[in-house]
Amino acid sequence: MAYYLSAYFSLEFTQSTNGLATIWPASGIFVAALLLAKRVAKLPIIATVAAASLISNIQFGASLIEAAGYTVANIVEGVVITQLVHRGANASRDLDNTGWLMTFLAATVFGSLVSGAVASLLAGQLSLPFFVSWSLTVCLGTLIVVPQSCVARAR
Questions:
Q1: Of 28, 73, 77, 131, which is least surrounded by CB within 10 A?
Q2: What is the DSSP track for 82-105?
Q3: What does the pLDDT look like over 105-130, one tens digit per residue?
């Protein structure tokens, strides 16, 4: 529900002239959920986020093919970032852990670029402005939300 509401309000209130949201905190919600979840909960989280992404994109005028492409890009992004963080850092998600933060930053940038490429290809939006806008939007959302979620979880 948090992913859907974040996606909905991002699309409703922060759209740029090219139709993309200017920030996509839903990416951060998804990545935080995957990073903080137990292994058995990850597949249900992925399935739920896929449904929420598909629904929210269709609600805001994307065709089924575009919405499916955006959804695959969102899922790939979250999974790539999470896998890179798990493989590249120890289990500590403390914000004073420089190694974890650097791994998280690098994984987020890389995962966002992969997501931008997937969205561009699968949704038929083969333009540099779309790719850059998508990649920066999801990167910013992840970099803002995940650290706050880790701190909140630690308390």
A1: 131
A2: HHHHHHHS-S---TT-HHHHHHHH
A3: 999 999 999 999 999 999 888 999 99
The DSSP call for residue 15 is B
Kindly list the distances between the CA atom of residue 130 and the CA atoms of 18, 26, 119, 121, in Å, as whole numbers in the listed order: 8, 18, 9, 11
Q: C-alpha distances in angstroms, 147 versus 35, 80, 101, 105, 143?
A: 11, 17, 9, 10, 7
Kindly state the DSSP code that residue 19 receives in the 8-state scheme.
Answer: S
pLDDT-derived band at 41 (thresholds 50, 70, 90) equals very high
| pLDDT > 70? residue 19 | no
Contact 71, 57 (CB under 8 A): yes
Between CA 46 and CA 102 the distance in angstroms is: 25
Q: Which of 101, 102, 107, 129 is nearest to 116 (CA)?
A: 129
Average pLDDT across the chain, whole number: 88
Contact 31, 50 (CB under 8 A): no
Neighbours of 43 (CB within 10 A): 10
